[in-house]
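This part of the workshop introduces the protein records we will be handling. Each record describes a single protein and holds just a pair of labelled lines. Instead of coordinates, the fold is spelled out as a row of discrete tokens. To make this concrete, we reproduce a full record directly below:
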Amino acid sequence: TLGNHPEITQNAIIPTPDGTALAANVVGTADPATLREWLAARLPDYMVPSAFVRLDALPLTVNGKLDRAALPLPDLTSAVSSRGPRDEHEAALCRAFADTLGLPRVGVDDDFFALGGHSLLAVRLVGAIRRSGIVDDPASVTVATVMTTPTPAALAKRLRTDPESDPSLAPLLALRPDGELPPLFCVHPGFGLAWSYAALLPHISPGRPVYGLQSPILSGAPDPVRFEDLVDEYVRRVRTVQPHGPYHLLGWSFGGGVAHAVACVLQREGEEVRFLAVLDAEPAVPLPPGEATGFGDDEAREHLRRAVAGPSADDPGAPDVAAELGDEVVTALLRARTAHEFLVPATPFGPFQGELRCVAVRANADRTGRAAWAEHCDGPVHETAVDHEHDDLLSPSAVDDIGPLLGSELNEISNQKGTDQPCTESEPQGSSAASPHDAAAPPAPSSRA
């Protein structure tokens, strides 16, 4: 793609030294900012190089081939935009971004996640902003605030114009509200938060909106009594954003069973579900009495810490996640985790009519892989086994493996199906039909992580 730019005569794309990003070595007259913008309009975010190195000519071996060893080490600070802050407020936010990311400077238009940010660093950034005195009300800055306004300019504007509006615990979290393609709906894991799905954004086409479905418990609703009630609530939320299919659904852990159930209900109502993927999730099925034992408080808090911080949770410099989130939020998360642990359907959902993609932690593959999902799906079940911990599946290292897989499959589905535009010209068919969970079905035993 870069070779098609009219001002570039040669280029070589290589990984950065730490292997976390791409660097572009270019021969031509175009400046890095222009090239970055040009590529961003044509490629998914994760394919846009983080650094650009301008050369008079590419180094060659005596055989006339590219001499990769002679390519200069990229300056990762070249990923930073040239536009500086316009006032002290933006300047303070730029310094907080740069300090958190370990960069010498950050421009006002630079995206926190494009520069290497992730959920743990977002927690650190929120803590830094709250402690710095940049904002009058520290509680107005949350992880979700950073995820939905990830540049210093956007964050400054948000805090000036609408500091009270905090979507971090809302039932529907708009991780990326804009785009012409049908949205991807991501269902929360056991603690009820969908924040971590922001790590997938660089791997998903910029034209596809992404929404997180979060537990209603976090915004003050009573605990759901039945699994079926929760599924019906999530179907309503999805239809609020997108009244008709094709639908695209993703769920992690507890959210995988919910995503599958939502997909089954949408199909029963006459809608097309074009994409369904689950991350290390067991099917939602009835459990024998007494099998679900739940977590003790200390164990649940440890799971929460790792779910937010990922594999860096044990680093000496890792923040106290509970302290950063606040007692009120932690209490709501623990309550949600307890409620969801015992929330199982009275009868199995499905089977889902179509293909299902499951990503399974290798150690859990017997419970979360193809064998576990085959009877709940009438189409092919594609399994990918990964060597990561369950709580770390949306950490930076795991997303490097999972993100390109999900992003490419979403793109492939869109290309195969044509325009992939949602249908809006008619009412959903069969909306008066009973939900799958209203039909009698024998309970099936399951192990539950």
Remarks:
- The chain is about 35% helix and 15% strand.
- Residues 422-449 have pLDDT under 50 and may be disordered.
- The two ends are 44 Å apart (CA to CA).
- The CA atoms of residues 63 and 70 lie 14 Å apart.
